[in-house]
Amino acid sequence: MVKENDPEKRELRRQRVVGAVLGALILVGWLSVHIYGVFFFNWGPYSAFVVPALVALSCWLYVGMFILAHDCMHGSLVPGRPDVNRRIGQLCLTLYAGFDFDTLREKHRRHHRYAGTEADPDFDALPPHGFLHWYYSFFSEYFGLRQLAYMATLVVVYVVLFGASISNIVVFLALPAILSSLQLFTFGTYLPHRPSNQDFVDEHRTRSSDYSPLMSLLTCFHFGYHHAHHLHPAVPWWRLPEIHEPARSGA
User: Fold this and answer.
1) Which residues touch 19 (CB under 8 Å, ≥6 apart)?
2) pLDDT class of 128 with cuts at 50, 70, 90
3) pLDDT tens digits for 90-119?
4) Contact 143/97 with Cβ under 8 angstroms?
């Protein structure tokens, strides 16, 4: 006799497998581009074409690593395995910029609990909620002495121990990391939570983008479907297009 909860268990196993496979692809992809760019890329006549593509790819994979860590904060990357989620999340955040998983998880819980208010660490409560001021507040909230020390140590290790060039480090380490923070902020915080003339549809005080699934993936790994995420925080990033409801986005 088939147990009533078998379909639920099968879906849970599927989510674990898909999440683990996609997570591994993102991590391996980021490591590959990062290692090649920092240690093996040689500048030449083709650089004007190759460098922008590599930087854009690295930036996108940086965003992907942060989204993996974000799902780990919600326990949705590997559901039912809190220790595994924490380890993977810490790995992603360490590689990203030396962030502490527990600290960011607590701030993210406050974001969900107090979204769009002064108690929300991701929200700029000062009108007119300008992009540059908000990004500066967002960046300052998360990037501090710990991250500065981590990046400085990484640069020293790369140059002294492995002989990496400063130009490669700037272009393939610093630049993608900074650009990815802008990408995450723009599509995952500013556009979803920016107040406008139209009221938000509910207490989550957020809206979803109307991008196609492909554009949503390219911009922020579907994190732009932000209202759907706030309604269903246990749903992993790759399933957000399934539950995205444009009519309820509040846009």
Assistant:
1) 71, 76, 77, 78, 79, 236, 238
2) confident
3) 999 999 999 999 999 999 999 999 999 999
4) yes
